[in-house]
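Appendix B, Record 12. Input sequence as logged:
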Amino acid sequence: MRAGLGFALVENVGYILMQPTLTGQIEVWMLRAFLAVPGHAMWTGMIGALAAQRRFDKRGLGPRRRLPARGRVPRRLRVSVFAREPLRLEGYDTLSKALAAVPILMTVLASSCFAGLARHALQLDDRDAAVRAARALSSSAHDAATTALPSARPAI
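Logged structural output:
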């Protein structure tokens, strides 16, 4: 997630410096603080969780399947943000205002998805720990049973 947050920092500074007025800079700063920073953390976390699932469980999204957070989701976020002003200038005020909700909804959706991935990972860890504990118990019970049996030594 650190890589995603580092990228968000660089990207935020670039977007803020592109604004010609202080009001624009403050507006961009506030929007990016509430949407871009958590968004980058969640997108990176989801990619990491899915990659780890593929690596350790041998299932899930792999190199042939596209990761949803890698390109399509952030691209849709950018389109919804950058298309607002041209739509407003063309007279589509209602559509422009409706697109303002897309980044918020997608960030909430990403948060929910990331929480679900985290819960699933914890359940898998608990299951793996239970399997290891059961194996340890059965092997220790087997060891105890074999040592309790009288040995059949030939008499000399």
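DSSP finds six helices and no strands in the chain.
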